[in-house]
C-alpha cells in the first residue's frame, strides 16, 4: 500500500467533490461517481456491498449515497487501511439520523488524534481490564437468575434481555437499579438502538427518547460530582482508596485536554456510551439463541459437552461474524493518501463494509456456512473479525466494549443453553434490509416448569 502525506501530489483537486479521482497507469483520471444508490442500500440492506464487490471483482467500489460521493471498501487490507494510521475521522462520517442517536458532539467517537487517544484511554481502563470483565460476567449471572425467576409462560427474549442488560449496565458502572426507573431508561436506550436505521418521524421519536436519557445521565453525573465534593470537603478522601472508584465516579471526574472536568453534557454522553451499547448486546444474545435453535448440536455442547466454556467462546465468535449488526462504519479522510491506485483526499467519505468483511471468502472460506469450529485455529488477526471495528482498541476507534461483549455473550450462551424452554410458533426470519436486524418475533420462548412440562411434546431444542 503506498501512501502520500500532504496535498502536494494531488493536482486535480475537485472542490465540489462531485467526481472521483483515480490513478491509472501512473496517470490520474477522473470519472463521475454515478447515480445515487441510497435506494439500493435500503433495498439490499446488509448485502448491498457484497453484491457490488462481487460484480466489481475487487475490494473497492465508488458510488453516491445520500447524494454524496462515497467509496465502499471491504476485506482485511481495507480494514488495515481504514483503521491504521489516523487516516480517518468520524466527523460527517454517518448520516445525521444515525449520528444523533449513537454518538454526539464531544463524545469519544467524534474526536480524532491525540484528543481521541486521551479520551479513549478512559474507556479502555474502565471497560477492558480483567476485573471489569469478571465483574460484568458476575453481574450478568446474578441478573439472569433474578430475571428467570420472574418469567412465566411465554416471554419475548429480546425484550427481557433489554431490561436485564439495563440493570447489568447500571450495576456495572456503579448505579443501583433500585434508584432508577429501569423500564423507562431501558425504553430510552433501546429506542436509540432500534431507531438508528430509521428516518423521519420514527427517528425523531427516538431522538426525543435520547434527550430523556441525556437529562437523566446529566443528573446522575451532577449528583456524583456533588458526592465527590462532599467527601473531599469532609476530609474523608485522604487517599484515592477512600473513595470507591466506580466507573461512574471515574467518568464523572474525568478531565479533558484542558485538564478541567469534562463538561457535564459530555460526561453524560459518555455515560450513555457505556449503557446503550451494553443493552445492544441483547441482539447478539438473541442471535446466539437463534443459532442454538438452528444448530441444536451447539446447544447440546454448551449444556452437556466436555468443554462448555471453550465452546461458548467459539459460538460467540461465529455468531458475531455471521449475524448482521453494524453494516458499515464510515470515516472521513483526514489527509491525502493512496490505496489500490486510488487517491484519497481530506474530506473524502469512505465506508468500510463490516458485514462483507466478516463474510469475505478470502479470509473465511465457506463464509456463509455457520461453523464455530473455524475459530479453533483462528490467528486472532485484528483486521479479520470486525463486527465491532478493526485494529487496536486503545489507539484507534475499535470498540472498547468488545471484550465485555464477548464475555457477556459467553456467559449468556451458557445460561441460555441450560434453561429449559420451548419455542412457540413464531416468525424467526431475519430481514437483511432492516437496520439493525433482529429475528422478526424478537425470539419468543416458553418456559417449562416441571409440572407443566409433563405430557408436552419434547422440546425441539433437546
Ligand atoms: C452489541 C455489541 C456491540 C457492537 C456491535 C459494537 C460495535 C461498535 C462499532 C462498530 C464501533 C465503531 C468503531 C469505529 O468507529 O470505527 C464501536 C465503537 C464504540 N463502542 Fe461498541 N459495540 C458493541 C458493544 C459495546 C459495548 C458493550 C460498549 C461499552 C460498554 C461499547 C462502547 C463503544 C464506544 C465507547 C465506542 C467508540 C470508540 C471510539 O470511537 O474510539 N460498545 N462499537
Automatic annotation (TrEMBL):
Residues 1-35 are annotated as: Disordered. Residues 1-18 have a biased composition (Basic and acidic residues). InterPro entries: Cyt_P450 (IPR001128), Cyt_P450_sf (IPR036396). GO terms for molecular function: heme binding; iron ion binding; monooxygenase activity; oxidoreductase activity, acting on paired donors, with incorporation or reduction of molecular oxygen. One of its GO terms (biological process) is sterol metabolic process. Its cofactor is heme. Keywords: Heme, Iron, Metal-binding, Monooxygenase, Oxidoreductase. Residues 19-30 have a biased composition (Basic residues). Gene3D superfamilies: Cytochrome P450 (1.10.630.10). Pfam families: p450. Belongs to the cytochrome P450 family. This is Cytochrome P450. It comes from Labedella populi.
Amino acid at each position: 500500500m503506498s501512501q502520500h502525506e500532504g496535498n502536494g501530489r494531488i493536482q486535480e483537486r475537485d472542490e465540489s467533490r462531485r467526481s472521483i479521482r483515480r490513478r491509472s497507469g501512473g496517470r490520474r483520471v477522473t470519472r463521475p461517481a454515478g447515480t445515487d444508490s441510497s435506494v439500493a442500500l435500503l433495498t439490499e440492506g446488509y448485502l448491498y456491498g457484497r453484491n457490488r464487490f462481487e460484480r466489481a471483482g475487487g475490494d473497492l467500489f465508488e458510488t453516491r449515497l445520500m447524494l454524496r460521493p462515497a467509496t465502499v471498501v471491504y476485506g482485511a487490507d481495507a480494514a488495515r487501511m481504514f483503521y491504521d494510521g489516523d487516516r480517518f475521522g468520524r466527523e460527517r462520517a454517518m448520516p445525521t439520523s444515525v449520528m444523533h442517536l449513537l454518538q454526539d458532539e464531544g463524545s469519544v467517537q467524534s474526536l480524532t488524534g491525540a484528543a481521541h487517544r486521551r479520551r479513549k484511554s478512559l474507556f479502555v481502563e474502565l471497560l477492558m481490564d480483567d476485573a471489569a470483565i469478571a465483574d460484568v460476567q458476575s453481574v450478568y449471572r446474578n441478573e439472569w437468575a433474578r430475571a428467570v425467576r420472574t418469567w412465566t409462560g411465554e416471554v419475548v427474549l429480546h425484550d427481557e434481555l433489554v431490561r436485564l442488560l439495563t440493570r447489568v449496565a447500571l450495576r456495572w458502572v456503579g448505579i443501583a437499579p433500585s434508584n432508577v426507573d429501569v423500564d423507562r431508561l431501558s425504553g430510552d436506550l433501546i429506542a436509540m438502538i432500534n431507531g438508528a436505521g430509521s428516518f423521519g418521524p420514527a427517528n425523531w421519536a427516538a431522538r426525543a427518547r435520547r434527550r430523556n436519557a441525556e437529562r437523566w445521565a446529566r443528573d446522575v453525573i451532577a449528583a456524583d460530582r456533588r458526592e465527590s465534593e462532599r467527601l473531599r470537603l469532609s476530609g474523608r478522601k485522604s487517599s484515592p482508596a477512600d473513595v470507591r472508584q466506580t466507573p461512574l465516579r471515574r467518568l464523572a471526574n474525568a478531565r479533558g485536554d484542558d485538564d478541567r472536568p469534562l463538561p457535564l453534557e459530555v460526561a453524560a454522553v459518555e455515560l450513555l456510551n457505556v449503557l446503550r451499547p451494553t443493552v445492544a448486546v441483547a441482539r447478539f444474545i438473541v442471535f446466539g439463541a437463534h443459532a442454538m435453535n438452528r444448530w441444536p448440536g451447539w446447544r447440546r455442547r454448551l449444556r452437556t459437552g466436555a468443554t462448555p466454556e471453550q465452546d461458548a467462546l467459539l459460538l460467540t465468535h461465529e455468531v458475531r461474524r455471521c449475524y448482521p449488526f453494524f453494516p458499515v462504519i464510515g470515516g472521513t479522510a483526514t489527509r491525502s493518501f493512496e490505496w489500490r491506485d486510488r487517491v484519497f483526499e481530506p474530506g473524502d467519505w469512505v465506508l468500510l463494509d463490516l458485514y462483507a468483511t466478516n463474510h469475505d471468502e478470502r479470509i473465511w472460506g465457506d463464509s456463509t456456512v455457520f461453523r464455530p469450529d473455524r475459530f479453533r485455529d483462528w490467528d486472532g488477526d485484528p483486521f479479520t473479525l470486525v463486527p465491532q471495528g478493526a485494529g487496536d482498541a486503545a489507539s484507534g476507534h475499535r470498540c472498547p466494549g468488545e471484550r465485555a461483549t464477548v464475555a457477556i455473550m459467553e456467559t449468556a450462551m451458557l445460561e441460555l443453553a441450560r434453561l429449559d424452554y420451548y419455542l412457540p410458533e413464531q416468525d424467526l426470519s431475519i430481514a437483511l434490509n432492516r437496520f439493525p436486524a433482529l429475528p422478526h418475533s424478537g425470539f419468543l420462548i416458553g418456559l417449562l416448569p416441571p409440572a407443566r412440562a409433563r405430557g408436552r411434546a419434547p422440546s425441539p431444542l433437546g
